[in-house]
Amino acid sequence: MNPANDDGAYRQLRAAILALDVVPGERLTERGLESVLSASRTPIRAALMRLENEGLTRREGRGWQVTPIDLTTLKAEKPISIRTKPGPTKGYYGQPLAIAISPDGKTAYVADGALSTVTPIDLANGTHGKPISLSGQVGSDAIAISSNGAAAYVANQPSSTVTPIELATSKPEKPIKIGSGWDSGFEAIITVP
Q1: Considering Cα of 76, then 79, then 80, then 82, what sign does the dihedral take?
Q2: Which of 18, 41, 117, 160 could form a disulfide with 179 if both were Cys (CB 3.0 to 4.6 A apart)?
């Protein structure tokens, strides 16, 4: 058994479920997933079982099913304000463009394109942490958190850079140039394994 192969099948299937590429209630078979995920049945079965433990899949007869959503059990949560700090111009309150959730699900990180900041928000109580300044990297329109929760990566479209942030110290690193500006075809999409 290859743990890397097991993890790859799990991550691919989990991502597909969370992106709604595989919709709630959809039936899944191990044999059908073999070709889709380019993996053998053993890692497919392991992935389905891990996802079952997370509540994302469930056994359905001899097959599997993406766990259906019961709309009657959903409850509305109090929204958390992310537009609380005044911007650079009087009466202007920033422009939150992207949000990423920490791997433990406890903290949201909001990238604000106008204020050039990333603000941590404690999801348990809605309190804002101190905004992390991105040193003038305007246009922060995508953010991703590393799988271990140690770093954030913020895409800054106008300057075609990605700014890494060490989350333990809230310290942004030097931006990494990945294009030549607006005309470079830069897309604000970040994927962190």
Answers
A1: positive
A2: 160
